[in-house]
Design goal:
By secondary structure, this protein is of the alpha+beta class. The protein is about 35% helix and about 15% strand. Among the domains are: about 110-195, Uridine Diphospho-n-acetylenolpyruvylglucosamine Reductase, domain 2 (2-Layer Sandwich), CATH 3.30.43; about 205-320, 2-Layer Sandwich (Uridine Diphospho-n-acetylenolpyruvylglucosamine Reductase, domain 3); about 545-730, FAD-linked oxidases, C-terminal domain (Vanillyl-alcohol Oxidase, Chain A, domain 3). A 7-stranded antiparallel β-sheet has the order 25-22-24-23-27-28-26, with helices on both faces. A 5-stranded antiparallel β-sheet has the order 7-8-12-10-11. Its EC number is 1.1.99.39.
Length: about 800
């Protein structure tokens, strides 16, 4: 009978939606701001036209309008291909004549070839003209080089040896994978040595709990997807060239693909990268952690760098559970406006959410907002991809006034028409009520939501959230800020303002510098404005508070939740029995949702969706199956918003309870999920029964909050904790800081999570952007590197 207890709770739960839907609104077709007008389908950058006018003085056009070729489509295939290739060769030639070969580059000789044969063997050093012809020309037949040598390394070590030699000889190289690019990025311009990584095509590992795949750069995308399908997963990337493109090239070009709207950018899905620099140095950034806030996220620079910073040799990527159903509709619309309206309707119903939800949102500062804040992908006023641009230094007083006067805070979100909602976002004025909480209310008023939810939401600021790459409770659903911050404005140490405040979901023009500032803790520059992708507000939410008999059951429950709940799973949190006892003891008004017993582990599962009855049925079916399978010992589903808040109070109140209990040693660790709780058990054995060791956190993304609670601080206890906790984490390929950052506390411990070569590159970037070291000194990087003479 006990196993059916959860079903009684489920049946008793009210079917009333926890959150009311907002009224539908139509957006204006253009937004005037600062004398400029943003309109659908029009480029409004005032510098663009001037730039192209200037270019016409120096360069001939490099491509013909599409209409020049449409007439050829009715010709025979062979004749048409020959004609197009001939025109494109000519077109490319007009540009190529403006490019002069760099005279500092050496010319290949027989000694070079002999050296490469010693490294790779005879068969992997290609000089055959027919094979070189294929490698020298892109698949469109548009760009053609004249390389005399193709190298096929089989390992990272061989790539390192090749580049080390080429760097010494000043031999130019071009990395190449499947050669499916469209802009001539993977073929030589002149006689560069081609390094093709196609022979590096091994799958290194796959974790079926987390869905993380580690492979070499030469793996073909379609082959990876076929491998994953057999394990119930799929690649988040789907391209027309998937049968020949390679994952290394996909990452190097930050490929988007057909399902970008669902799975997002590779900046959010690539968890780790191994790359070889021009001098042969191997940068080991091949982490498999969803959260790792230890220093600058250097791998982000290589994503989309097109092989110009280094050659990617290995990749770890987050894959998704294979959907159990797919549907496809082929529709016709009378005009483009109808397409936009259809997109609006589908998005609100199907909902593609924003990824950030942090507890400190009630007080983080959102900043000055402009009318151009509300811009959408491709310059369209479509609801699918609402981008919020904001400064980090104060919230507009008019917004607060409008929210108060029009009862926004009491739930009357539809009381203002859209024009009024836009008009109140005009006069920036600092206010004492500059909280992320208020920003969230504003976004909800137009049917959207912030993707970040933190325990410190009442006081944290959005600039700080970005600078520390905050994670939060809903990271498992909405992902990292690296995938959701679209633009950033930052001020460098010398006062230079870097305008990276783009609002485009796709922009592969050069290195994505904003990624360096996300998680840099203010050590490279001060963030002043942010553009962030928000998501449609969910029309249904469900929260289950569950008990599990052991940690293995928690793991299996997570694995099943990812498979069965899929697109509606938004949070998966856990806490142990010691954490529950602490909360019940030190927080007033908190009650045990599953009395009278205290179980070994507790799990909170939240779902968010668009159809309340469907979402409810899906969650109930999952819970009943899990209980019958022995994964759940007991559980209850929140019947209303008050009960949901009381459940979350247990999880979010742990930090407050720890402070009330006395002294606390806190550690924010990221670990492989199967190893996550082992460190808690080992720490208990190490410290003995006299110390209270607690473990809780974000099980869905492998983030453990390890806490040692005692009446007072004691150096002898600290000596038992550190450096053991860092050494243990490093041994298991974890991160010593999942989401809190390094700050002053862990700056000198960065080597436990980052290789010496990676730390050295970080220090070089710091010195480049802040040569005098005035920005947030003594933080993030080791003192002996930043201040060797001190």
């Amino acid at each position: 009978m006990e196993k059916w207890r959860i079903s009684r709770h489920i049946v008793k739960r009210s079917s009333t939606s926890l959150f009311k839907s907002l009224l539908s609104t139509n957006f204006e077709k253009s937004i005037n701001t600062s004398g400029s007008t943003y309109k659908s389908g029009r480029n409004c950058n005032p510098y663009v036209e001037h730039y192209f006018q200037c270019q016409k003085r120096h360069f001939q056009t490099c491509c013909h309008p599409l209409r020049d070729y449409t007439g050829n489509l009715h010709a025979s295939k062979a004749t048409n291909l020959e004609h197009i290739c001939r025109i494109q060769y000519k077109s490319f030639g007009s540009v190529a004549t403006q490019i002069q070969r760099n005279p500092s580059f050496s010319t290949l000789n027989s000694d070079d070839v002999d050296h490469f044969k010693k490294i790779l063997g005879e068969k992997n050093v290609i000089q055959d003209e027919d094979r070189l012809l294929t490698a020298n020309v892109d698949w469109m037949g548009k760009y053609k080089g004249s390389s005399k040598l193709l190298l096929q390394p089989r390992s990272t070590e061989e790539v390192s040896q090749i580049l080390k030699y080429c760097n010494t000889r000043c031999l130019a190289v071009v990395p190449q994978g499947g050669n499916t690019g469209l802009v001539g990025g993977s073929v030589p311009v002149f006689d560069e040595v081609i390094i093709n990584v196609g022979s590096m095509n091994h799958i290194i590992s796959f974790d079926e709990v987390s869905g993380i795949l580690v492979c070499e750069a030469g793996c073909i995308l379609e082959n990876l997807d076929s491998f994953l399908v057999n394990h119930g997963f799929m690649m988040p990337l789907d391209l027309g060239a998937k049968g020949s493109c390679q994952i290394g090239g996909n990452v190097s070009t930050n490929a988007g693909g057909l399902h970008f709207v669902r799975y997002g950018s590779l900046h959010g899905n690539v968890l780790g990268l191994e790359a070889v620099l021009a001098n042969g140095t191997v940068l080991d950034m091949l982490g498999t952690l969803r959260k790792d806030n230890t220093g600058y996220d250097l791998k982000q620079l290589f994503i989309g760098s097109e092989g110009s910073l280094g050659i990617a040799t290995k990749v770890s990527i987050l894959t998704s559970p294979k959907p159990s159903s797919k549907n496809l509709a082929f529709l016709a619309c009378k005009d483009y406006l109808s397409c936009q309206d259809a997109l609006d309707s589908f998005t609100v119903y199907l909902q593609v959410y924003m990824p950030l939800d942090v507890g400190a949102k009630g007080s983080c500062q959102s900043g000055e907002m402009y009318q151009q804040c509300w811009r959408f992908a491709f310059g369209l006023e479509a609801v699918l991809e609402m981008v919020l641009c904001l400064t980090c230094l104060g919230l507009c007083a008019k917004i607060i006034q409008a929210m108060t006067d029009n009862s926004y805070l009491s739930g009357s979100e539809g009381s203002l028409d859209v024009a009024t909602k836009f008009s109140i976002l005009t006069s920036p004025k600092p206010s004492s009520k500059n909280q992320l909480f208020l920003l969230v209310k504003i976004i909800l008023a137009v049917r959207f939501m912030m993707p970040l939810d933190l325990g410190a939401k009442g006081s944290c600021q959005i600039g700080g959230n970005v600078s520390t790459n905050a994670g939060g409770l809903h990271f498992v659903r909405y992902g990292s800020l690296h995938g959701n911050v679209l633009g950033l404005e930052a001020v460098l140490a010398n006062g230079t303002v870097l305008d990276m405040l783009g609002t485009l979901r796709k922009d592969n023009t050069g290195y994505d510098l904003k990624q360096l500032f996300i998680g840099s803790e203010g050590s490279l520059g001060i963030a002043t404005k942010v553009s962030i992708l928000t998501s449609p507000k969910p029309s249904s939410k469900n929260l289950a508070f569950l008990a599990c008999k052991d940690y293995l059951s928690c793991q299996k429950l997570l694995q099943e939740a990812k498979r069965k709940l899929g697109e509606i799973l938004s949070a998966f949190e856990f806490l142990d029995s010691q954490s529950m006892e602490l909360v019940l003891t030190h927080l007033e008004g908190v009650r045990n949702p599953l009395p009278p017993s205290i179980y070994e582990f507790y799990v909170l599962i939240e779902t968010r969706g668009t159809d309340e009855s469907y979402d409810k049925e899906k969650l109930e079916a999952f819970l009943l199956r899990s209980m019958e399978g022995g994964l759940i010992a007991d559980g209850v589903v929140a019947q209303d918003i008050n009960q949901a808040s009381s459940f979350w109070r247990i999880r979010e109140g742990l930090s407050e309870a720890l402070v009330k209990a006395g002294a606390v040693y806190k550690y924010d660790l990221s670990l492989p999920i199967e190893k996550m709780y082992s460190i808690v058990e080992e720490m208990r054995l190490r410290l003995g029964q006299s110390e209270k060791v607690l473990g809780y956190g974000h099980l869905g993304d492998g983030n453990l909050h390890l806490n040692i609670s005692r009446p007072n601080y004691d150096d002898s206890v600290l000596a038992k904790i550190e450096p053991f906790v860092y050494e243990w984490t490093s041994k298991h390929r974890g991160s010593i800081s999942a989401e809190h950052g390094l700050g002053l506390m862990k700056a000198n411990e960065i080597h436990y999570s980052k290789s010496p070569q990676t730390v050295q590159v970080m220090a070089s970037i710091k010195k480049l952007l802040d040569p005098n070291g005035i920005l947030n000194p003594y933080k993030v990087l080791p003192h002996n590197i930043l201040y060797p003479e001190a």
